[in-house]
Structure formats: C-alpha cells, structure tokens
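Late entry, evening session. Most of the bench is empty. Finally got around to the prediction I had been postponing all week. Sequence below, unchanged from the version circulated by S.P.
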Amino acid sequence: MGFNNNFNSSGGATVLTDLEVDGTTLSIDETNNRVGVGLTTPKTRLTVEGAVTFKEQASADSDTVAYGQLWVKTATPNELYFTTDAGDDIQLTTGTGTAGGGGGAAADTADTILHMQVFA
C-alpha cells in the first residue's frame, strides 16, 4: 500500500492509492472502498479484527433516514441497543443476557436466540 503526499488547498491530505498505517492498525482499500482495523485486507465496508468498544450514552443519536445505530445505554450493567432509522429502540441485551420478547423485555431463560433482520 502506498501514500501520495498531495495536499489540497484547505491543508488536508489527498490519498490517491491504498493507505496502511502502522502495519495492521488501520488500512484503507481504495479500490474496493473498504476500511480495516487490525488487518490489512478488509472483507466488507468496515472490518474490525478484535473487540469493538462502545462508550455508553443515555440514548441513541438523532435518527438518520436509511441508517440504524448500534449503541450502549448507560445502565448498570450496560445494555446493548439497536435503533432503527424510524427511531425505534430495540434492546438486544439486558446487561447480563440477551433481551427477548416484544419491546426489549428481559428474557426468562438463558436459551433465548437473538434474530435480527436489517433491510437496506
């Protein structure tokens, strides 16, 4: 991967080819429009090799048409949520297990399976 030191008039760098930072720390596959963290060959638009850390927050950010949000709600212990582009908050975990039932009610057993379908 290479880097071309071109700078635009606003002082920002323009990368004309793939970019790799510190080996596998961050890589950009310019040909396929993919970003990799922790690896040099991203498999999808964003590929992360290893754990992803989310900072807890009180609620989802403002809704954006055609985009969902994955976020961690401030609770003890933290709870994982998915928010649809319509602003519907779907609780995925109870902090100690998976959420189940309608509207994110806590599951009665540890055998609950989470099914999520995302429409593009």
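Two things to note before I forget:
The beta strands are 6-7, 13-14, 19-21, 26-29, 34-37, 46-48, 69-73, 79-83, 89-91.
The first strand starts at residue 6 and ends at 7.
Will write this up properly tomorrow.
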